[in-house]
Write a structure and sequence with these properties.
five-stranded antiparallel beta sheet; 22% strand; globular; 264 residues; 8 helices; alpha+beta
Length: 264
């Protein structure tokens, strides 16, 4: 955590978002970007980071506030109950929580702690990590402006487990004005993280992003049509968004909305 904190403090010193995004894009894609008149998907995501001032994006990237928005769009049955939320990790009532749960920082991405067995967890280390999350503004790490003004909080939810007793696959639907063009599937995120992409017809797509693909084909989820419907309802108001869902038996659960996935 010390190295990450040093990195964060150095990035925070640089005030020019355009300069940071220019060099980030150049290094990642090995070409000069056109942010003013974007043509490629990655340029359009960068344009969104630099110029989008829609305040709604901040509330939708807040992992707590977004729940009300989603309830109004698709119904409460798809939204996980918040077991506890706080700005002070010392107040987390571990004795009252179930044996397994997930802790999420509401103001960032990927700042999660999975607790599979509370009796074996190092609670003081969990509190320390939560305080580390709260000490940072996620905006400075990637200059995704939708995260800049989110209130830092720690939220706890039930840990989802699939029918095999494992952490479920993540299904992320890439929606353009409500039209789903492809789906990202992440497996074993807590271990050997792998990622496949499928099109609307569940045909595998021949590319990778940040993680190696899974060597075997992944079956279409049994709730696929329902997930498509949900993604269309949530995404139809936006030029682009990525909607994260889980499918377990006959149930679909909402995860999060992302506007600049993988900070690309």
């Amino acid at each position: 955590m010390l190295f990450k904190k040093i990195q964060y403090n150095l990035l925070k010193l640089i005030k020019n978002d355009f300069l940071i995004e220019f060099f980030r894009y150049l290094i990642r894609h090995n070409r000069i970007p056109n942010f003013k008149s974007p043509k490629t998907f990655n340029e359009k995501l960068a344009h969104c980071k630099l110029y989008n001032k829609n305040e709604l994006y901040a509330s939708l990237c807040d992992k707590y506030l977004v729940k009300d928005y989603v309830r109004n769009k698709i119904g409460n049955e798809y939204v996980l109950e918040t077991l506890f939320i706080t700005s002070n990790p010392d107040t987390i009532p571990f004795d009252d929580l179930p044996n397994s749960f997930i802790i999420k920082a509401t103001h960032g991405s990927g700042w999660n702690i999975i607790v599979k067995n509370k009796k074996q967890a190092n609670l003081s280390e969990i509190i320390k990590k939560c305080n580390f999350f709260l000490s940072m503004n996620y905006y400075y790490l990637g200059r995704e402006r939708q995260y800049r003004n989110i209130k830092p909080q720690i939220m706890i939810e039930k840990l989802l487990i699939d029918e095999n007793g494992d952490i479920p696959k993540d299904y992320k639907f890439f929606s353009f004005n409500g039209n789903v063009k492809f789906i990202q599937v992440d497996i074993d995120r807590d271990g050997n993280h792998r990622r496949n992409f499928y099109d609307y017809e569940w045909e595998r797509m021949p590319f990778e992003l940040n993680y190696p693909s899974y060597e075997y084909n992944i079956d279409k989820p049994m709730n696929f049509n329902k997930m498509l419907e949900i993604s269309k309802k949530i995404g139809k108001e936006f030029n682009f968004t990525r909607i994260y869902l889980n499918s377990i038996l006959n149930n679909v659960y909402f995860g999060e909305i992302t506007f600049t996935p993988e900070n690309n």
